[in-house]
Amino acid sequence: MPAFAAKPAKAPKPPKAPTFDTKRLSEEVKVLSSDEFEGRGPATAGETKTIDYVVAQLKAAGVQPGGDLKDGKRLWTQAVPLLRSNIEGSPKLTVTVKKKSRALTQGNEIAVRAALNGADNVAFKNAPLVFAGYGVSAPERDWDDFKGVDLKGKIAVVLINDPDFDTGEGDFGGKAMTYYGRWTYKYEEAARRGALGLLIVHETEPASYGWATVKNSNTNTMFDVVRDQPGKAHPTMEGWIQRDLAVSLFKSAGLDFEKLKQQAWTREFKPVTLKGVTLSANYAVKSEVITSQNIVGRIDGSKKPDETVIYSAHWDHLGVGAPDAKGDTIYNGAVDNATGTAALIEMGRAFAKGKKPQRSVVFLAVTAEEKGLLGSEYYASKPLYPLAKTVAVINTDALDPTGPARDFTTSGSAKQELLDELIATAQRWGLTYVTDPKPEAGHFFRSDHFPFAKRGVPAVSFGSGEDKVDGGVEAGKAESDAYVKDRYHQPADQWEASWSFTGMARDLQILYTLGNDLANSRRWPNWAQDSEFRGARDETAGERAGK
Questions:
Q1: 37-40, long-range: CB < 8 A, 24+ apart
Q2: At what angle do helices 502-519 and 417-427 cross, to 10 degrees?
Q3: What pLDDT tens digit does each residue of the chain (547 aa) get?
Q4: CA separation for the pair 427, 540 (Å, rounded)
Q5: Residue 317: which of 297, 331, 303 has the closest Cα?
Q6: CB burial class (10 A; 0-12, 13-18, 19+) of residue 266?
Q7: Which of 90, 160, 299, 350 could pair with 18 as two cysteines, CB 3.0-4.6 Å apart?
Q8: For strand 197-202 and strand 237-242, is the pairing parallel, antiparallel, or unpaired?
Q9: Which residues contact 407 (CB under 8 A, 6 or more apart)?
Q10: Helices and strands counted in the chain (H then E)
Q11: d(Cα 145, Cα 139) in Å, to the nearest integer?
């Protein structure tokens, strides 16, 4: 090298942190996503195998049980009662256009969910269809898509995402999805309005996933938390329809789908009845209350055991479902979320081997995330350790099992000090933070940190980066796009022998350091002053005072 040539800048020397064994991570993901575990469906033989395996791994790692109390001792699990509903046989679904009827095939043009409102039979004839825009009632934004229309005995048809998704600007955060854009909200609002049912028009871009994901997630067993009045949260019929079917039905009623969609971008939109178009349905629903389990491990704090840092991940996936083109019926869930579950086991091992933290650390593997964040919702509503003294929740969901990236992201980018601390920690490894690259997908509301966040607990869900050390952004984006298209919520989400797990091992060092620093500090990170979650956290400030 010539004397005048500048020496290349040295990469920052990573701080001391435990090393995470890539072979062990790979083996755990392989086992959890094997056919033997039958897709890890809640309340199946797959759940039993999953619990037995994860508990055995945590025990061997030196973690202590942190679940329900029994006879003064902690169990390894927290019992989660759930309502489980199945459509018996194939539902009879018929659309009538100008007195001519035709059958709709479940999973093809329409995907109807098993009723969660307590009905054991769904039977109605010629229910009118009413297009209700995005199905949003947001008084604080002076927005009402319903305009007082009576939906009793009617099926509302609505669009997915927010009114400003297509234009990218407006009162709903531009491209970033608000909770109003989530399908969960739309069903809840339909129930509040007294609608017989609600059908969401599927479009790939605003939904952020294809029809295969909709079909696989909605035509199998449905679960919900046990509610005193389920009809207040769920209309009788909940489902999705393909965009092509919606366009055809609108046209039959003399309406232009695209024109009405554009009208729905505005406050002035008024609901429109699809004249001459009705829907009929007849199917039995079998419902029962079952008990699933959250898995809970714990390392007791040496000085402040009543203060808790939580690492979370969901252990469940979709179980056994409809066959894919190859005839495969097992939804193995390797990336989603055997990776996060393996991360939890190895995080427990790292803390158990290291110096005991001053605050307690909990390793929470929740059930029924795929059914609507139900395990985390149950824990957050009936916490084993007080939420007021829960320092932070660090969630891992669908981590990248391949090589390292130069960056990382999070599900959503809500302003909070916990995120600031994560960004600063990652910088010590030379990683840059990229705000959620697809805020329109509403990932903030789709991961297990959300039930904690909405109750004020600082919470973040870590996401692997796309700027790969080997191949850059182009390679990383191609990889993630292919995953969403070909594997996400499909039987093809299977373990690969080629996965190196080197990126995940490095990312876990960062997450360990973040949690360990908090567990050995007196800090109580909070939300930004203008955050919608700040108020709930501040209400419990007295319980942390002087601690």
A1: 37/332, 38/319, 38/320, 38/330, 39/317, 39/318, 39/319, 39/320, 39/321, 39/330, 39/331, 39/332, 39/333, 40/315, 40/316, 40/317, 40/319, 40/333, 40/338
A2: 130
A3: 334 344 444 555 778 999 999 999 999 999 999 999 999 999 999 999 999 999 999 999 999 999 999 999 999 999 999 999 999 999 999 999 999 999 999 999 999 999 999 999 999 999 999 999 999 999 888 999 999 999 999 999 999 999 999 999 998 878 888 889 999 999 999 999 999 999 999 999 999 899 998 998 899 889 898 888 999 999 999 999 999 999 999 999 999 999 999 999 999 999 999 999 999 999 999 999 999 999 999 999 999 999 999 999 999 999 998 888 899 999 999 999 999 999 999 999 999 999 999 999 999 999 999 988 999 999 999 999 999 999 999 999 999 999 999 999 999 888 899 999 999 999 999 999 999 878 888 888 889 999 999 999 999 999 999 999 999 999 999 999 999 889 999 999 999 999 999 999 999 999 999 999 999 999 999 999 888 889 899 999 999 985 4
A4: 32
A5: 331
A6: exposed
A7: 350
A8: parallel
A9: 431, 432, 433, 434, 465, 466, 467
A10: 15, 22
A11: 11
What is the Cα–Cα distance from 448 to 394, expressed in whole angstroms? Answer: 9
* DSSP letter string, 407-433: EEEESS---BHHHHHHHHHHHTTTPEE
215 to each of 381, 412, 436, how far by Cα in Å?
Answer: 30, 25, 26
| Six token digits for residue 312 | 């979370």
pTM exceeds cut of 0.90: no
Report the SS3 class of residue 126.
strand
Contact 191, 146 (CB under 8 A): no
Which pair of structure tokens corresponds to residue 43? 């309340």
Residue 525 near residue 544, CB atoms below 8 Å: no
Peptide bond into 516 cis (omega under 30): no
Look-up of token digits 């329809």: 241
Q: Which residue, 353, 371, 409, 387, is CA-closest to 456?
A: 387
Sequence-ordered list of residues with C-beta below 8 angstroms from that of 362, at least 6 positions apart, any chain = 66, 296, 297, 298, 308, 309, 310, 311, 384, 385
